[in-house]
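Below is a complete specimen:
___
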Amino acid sequence: MAGTAGTPGTPRVLRAMNDRAALDLLLEHGPLSRTRIGKLTGLSKPTASQLLARLEAAGLVLAGGTSEGRPGPSARLYEVNAVAAHAAGLDVSPDRIRAAVADLTGRAVGAYELPTPGRHRTRSVAQQVTDALDGAVKAAGLTRDDVHRVVIATPGAFDPTTGRLRYASHLPGWHSPDVLDALAAALPMPVEYENDVNLVAIAEQRLGAARGHEDFVLLWNQEGLGAALVLGGRLHRGWTGGAGEVGFLPVPGTPLVRKVTRANSGGYQELAGSRAVPRLARELGMTEIPSGPHTEAAAELVRRAAAEDTAAGRRLLAAYATRLATGLASLVSVLDPELVVLSGSSLTAGGEVLRRLVQDELAELAASRPRLVLGDVTGQPVLRGALESALATTRDEVFDTSR
């Protein structure tokens, strides 16, 4: 009957489901033989052969080498056609935009960093974004039209009801009411926008410490202090996109901050953010405070304290852990997560020593008992999360053989 070819249970949909299952296995395991694909999917040899022929004809898989060196006759190996589509991610901060392009397997094939210093820029936001993207595309040996989708990471979040950026007053140029329209006009591919810390959580859920976990909080401390909330396996963004903006959280131990959006800070940020670490070190009588940006100084102080095990370092880590646990206690008391992932240089620099101190302090301050772990995704985790998010949607579209 007309109109029923794509309904659940029909051959087309069942074939598409089997196709997707096989493609996901190839992404997970790398090159596989027809026999191995059949065993992993539960398909018969003839059905697996038809599936692979269909995917090869669609340009989604390639027949490559053979499984030589194993017992028995060699078998042809199949793999995902990495260049069937590409996706891009951008990580935006006040001083620079990082861009990267990945192929369909997730391998980064081109990257570029565009400095954007100062508040008086001559280039518009749209021009900055296209310049950064074009730099990564050129490094990958591609053209802009080769990119299937882009995900842009920013501090704060774009309010879905107004289209305006909120919670990030420190990002010049991005608060114009027409910035999203200008970007849509400048870029030929679909563009999505996501909070930077949310994307770190996506990276950890797909590649790192939160794999297999449906309920977790990621606490991020680097340029700013923030959190991402994953509940029931899904990111919780809130009504205006502001869920997880915990830097604004009022906490004991610091004066009550009013007009927090104007200050672009709040109690928890003042108590335990990266800027607080050098101040805390001075209050404790430490004199060797690293110079340079506060983010780098904080990470170096924490790293040194964890590595050298001096009395001054132990005092710094203990006080810092108490401050971190003070804000975390509110989060876990409300959300009761299974897991808390600590990420960002001002947290990961303390390694297992700091993690254990925060875990112990949290046990004193909150009734909930989540397990604390360090993030596994290091080296530009925001950008990695943007790529993973862009790739997930790209794969859903490119791998759908029912269309």
